[in-house]
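Question (not urgent): is this output format expected?
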Amino acid sequence: MLSWNGTAWVDGGVVKHLRFVNDATAFSYGCRWISNGSSLTDTYVWHNHNFPSYTGDSSTKIPSSSTRHFWWQYFWLLNNLGLNGLRTTGAGWSQTLNMFNLYKTNKAAFFSYMTDMLDMAVANGCYVVFTFLGGFYPGEPELPTVGMTDHIFITGSPSYIKYVAWIADVMAHFKDHPGLGMWDIVNEPDSKVSVTYWETKYPDDGTRQFANARAQFKLWLDTLVHDCITQSGSHTHLVTSGVAEGNVFAPTDPYVSFGSLSDATRFKSIQSDYVDVCQDHLYYSAEGYTKNITDPMGFSAPKPLFIGECNFNSPTGYGYWPWMDTAMNSANVAYCWMVLSDHGKGAYPGYPIPASVMASIPPMPSSCRDLHPVPECINGEVWDCVNGIWTNTHVACGTVPCRTTHPTPECINGEVWDCVNGVWTNTHVPCGQSQQNWLVPVILGTTILFALALAGTIK
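Got this back:
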């Protein structure tokens, strides 16, 4: 599974360079489609933000034969672009409700759909940063207002309890899945609507620093992240929470000179102590603002930094930016584009996806065994296909029965290897000789030895 070794992202000892993209709709709208009855004429069927091109509406689709096929194609396209991960974003509370409502009404369908996504990520060498809770933006349901007694922002309230229970249950269910890169507990809880709530509830002292509001916000975020981890009963995957940071809670100096940080103290004051990975979101409008890219003031230390959203920020929208790509690659930081499309600086290389590439997506492997020809050792335990599903057998690596790891004989260096008395053995039978031919002398020899033993010839 994905982890941080103190200097690099690694998986099974292999260093990983994380290059992701966001998608605010693919998983969330899939949940809404399933909740609507899975009709192939439904608005949300096969909808996503990225492929084959970003349009910003529900017309972007990948025609598919099943949810599993959809995610197979999605992650194949990511991999084909040189990207290796997806952040599900959870842009607003509407996206949160799409997911939560399917979980609430049909938990089995929710888990099955999420399994499809994670399995297909693994099949294409990708990871998922799964975002549970979206931020609050104008027009969203359940907007926070001072005086409320039931809201996710109020620790211990009915809404807080139900959302934490959902998050904890999902974390526990997928605690062993290798396709899960990070749990992103909440997306931009410091959005402008949210900050207005905190700053109104805990007024400024006149310094424009809103120290009390930031302290209360951080206390809430700390409690939320801690409760989710604790109630899940597991902490096998990295945990993060993306904050906007750039223009909220006393925006006195949002950007400063090249290679420096806008306000390390402010960032630390709104980042939960319980996350494993610090996450910032960066949108620039001019070259030279590397701000948090290189983390020169060490605001995330000793934790790793993940730039969960980044793009060129033009007056009319977001877009890919080659300069920012170069800057982040030079810093060797993990990052995730908001969109891949052109908005004044050029599109991501190979994007939008040409029709020829869409037509060249290979068929989805038909079974679990096609995806995983042999059992694999993941985090010290053996994963294998059980009833057609990629499953953690919870058998310690190195203690697996020979026939499990080698379901059939194999030809190695011209001779047949097979399980003999549970041990992987060279039978010294030439490859190509039929099984019947080479089994006859083995069986005959065994029979003669057994007969001699019974006669007392062999002691």
